[in-house]
Design goal:
alpha+beta, Cyclophilin, eight-stranded antiparallel β-barrel, two-stranded antiparallel sheet, 4 helices, 10 strands
């Protein structure tokens, strides 16, 4: 696949919905293809006493993330409220790019976007990085526009770290501690165009439930 073919679907998906800004396209052309994904799952390590974990039961398996309230308190509080409200139940991973990330938490299987609460301010200066397995917030061009949609990095994406790519960066607020094999299954599902969007899984990848487990 050449760089042009990689970038065309990304350019076509830039809509007024939470996503990665057009400035990322340059990164994809310049460096993404030369950054192979690591096969190893991120080490869970010893969780902090106050660590909170959320389990996503998906149609491809279970993914558990640990959120970092000490690093991104507003983002984590916002995310956990959506979890506790059952907002993510029945949504899908609606945008999947195998050499970049998987994004979900905002659309139903018929590609209807769910209404959200007010956005939360960016916390992208917290020092957490968009490495493989990192959990981050999607947004529009406005750095303070994140609502419910999130993405999981499937490779290291340093050009999403503050102050890249647009002077603001993307807020990382947690990481996968269980189920990177499931993330890797999702990243390679067949995708195509649907409802005007590119990179949509041809068979819906469901988030059946999202629940706090610790």
């Amino acid at each position: 696949m050449n760089n042009t073919n990689l970038l065309d679907p990304i350019r076509m998906t830039l809509r007024k919905v939470p996503w990665v800004s057009v400035a990322v396209a340059g990164y994809l052309a310049a460096s993404m293809l030369s950054s192979p994904a690591r096969a190893a799952e991120p080490a869970a390590g010893a969780p902090a006493a106050a660590a909170t974990r959320v389990a996503f039961e998906t149609s491809q398996g279970r993914i558990v993330v640990e959120v970092k309230a000490d690093k991104a308190p507003k983002t984590v509080a916002n995310f956990l409220q959506y979890v506790n409200d059952g907002f993510y139940d029945g949504t899908i991973f609606h945008r999947v790019i195998s050499v970049f990330m998987i994004q979900g938490g905002g659309f139903t299987p018929d590609m209807a976007q769910k209404p959200t609460r007010e956005p939360v301010p960016s916390e992208s200066t917290n020092g957490l990085k968009n490495v493989r397995g990192a959990l981050a917030m999607a947004r529009t061009g406005d750095p303070n526009s994140a609502t419910a949609q999130f993405f999981i990095n499937v490779v290291d994406n340093p050009r999403l770290d503050y102050p890249n790519p647009d002077g603001h960066g993307y807020t990382v607020f947690g990481n996968v501690v269980e189920g990177m094999d499931v993330v890797d299954k999702i990243r390679v599902v067949p995708t195509g165009q649907r409802s005007g969007f590119q990179d949509v899984p041809l068979t819906a990848v469901m988030i059946k439930t999202a629940r706090v487990v610790k």
